[in-house]
Amino acid sequence: RADMSRLGAGSPFLVSKSFNLLWANASLIHIRKKELPEVLGRLLGMLMGCGVMAATFFHGKGEGVYPGSFVPGRFFARYLKKELHQKFARGGWKVKSIRTVANEARKGRWLNVTATPALRSTHSKITLTLREISATLNPRLPPVRLCLSGPNVNK
After folding, report:
1. How far apart are the first and last CA of the chain?
2. pTM of the model
3. Run means of pLDDT, 10 residues per run, the chain, 155 residues
4. What is the maximal distance between C-alpha atoms in the chain?
5. Burial zone of 84 (CB within 10 Å; 0-12 exposed, 13-18 middle, 19+ buried)
6. Are 47 and 55 in contact (CB under 8 A)?
């Protein structure tokens, strides 16, 4: 059993606000349901303002070790759409879509989720960090994506 919860502490690869996309393909299904909002909140801190998260979860009810699953002896959490939507909202995310898909290779139904950071303010805002400003002055730095948010933006 590996504890991945401390991976970000001091890691040069997991710097706050350093990703445009988070992709959790059947990895968060091993997190206990009561811990998922906190984990989602920590993942939110890794994402740039306009970023997107895509994740896949087991469809169903309950959590635990399922001896008859495709990986016997491993912990799984299963979710219904409404429950998963609530967990993302509590973690600070706005769910854009939750789709149910069937997968024969993984034996079952899955929920594909796409989400973006929830708006924290009803006022329009433009945020430029020092790095973004300097990137426009220095063409050797990666291109900048400006994020606008507010009541009439990003709907």
Report:
1. 41
2. 0.70
3. 52 70 91 94 85 93 83 88 97 94 81 87 44 54 50 44
4. 58
5. buried
6. no
